[in-house]
Write a structure and sequence with these properties.
Blueprint: H1 5-14, H2 24-42, H3 73-77, E1 83-84, E2 87-88
Antiparallel strand pairs: 1-2
Helix pairs in contact: 1-2
Family: Belongs to the GatC family.
Keywords: ATP-binding, Ligase, Nucleotide-binding, Protein biosynthesis, Transferase
Pfam families: GatC
């Protein structure tokens, strides 16, 4: 399959991309290169190959989901512009 200038113009219009008329030949060439690569991929025999989510088969490491306070409230509150009684203090926004 080959992409001509009219098809490249239509694709750009559908994608809502403003492409100057002088750039359409380059865009058509890029589309043709992409389609050529897809044709190469179609030639690969994948019969019997299981789909995978990554290139190395391994299980994700699991950890127990435990809620903590982080163990360092003083360090966290040290960055706050205003902290009182162990909490962030913010200006009142509702009267």
């Amino acid at each position: 399959m080959s992409i001509d200038l009219d098809t490249a113009r239509r694709v750009a219009h559908l994608a809502r991309i403003a492409v100057p008329e002088e750039d359409l030949p380059a865009l058509a060439d890029e589309f043709n290169a992409i389609l050529g690569f897809i044709e190469q991929l179609q030639e690969v025999d994948v019969e019997g190959v299981e789909p995978m989510t990554g290139v190395t088969p391994m299980r994700l490491k699991r950890r127990e989901d435990v809620v903590t306070d982080g163990g360092m409230p003083d360090k966290v509150l040290a960055n706050a512009p205003d902290a009182r009684e162990g909490f962030f203090a913010v200006p009142k926004v509702v009267e």
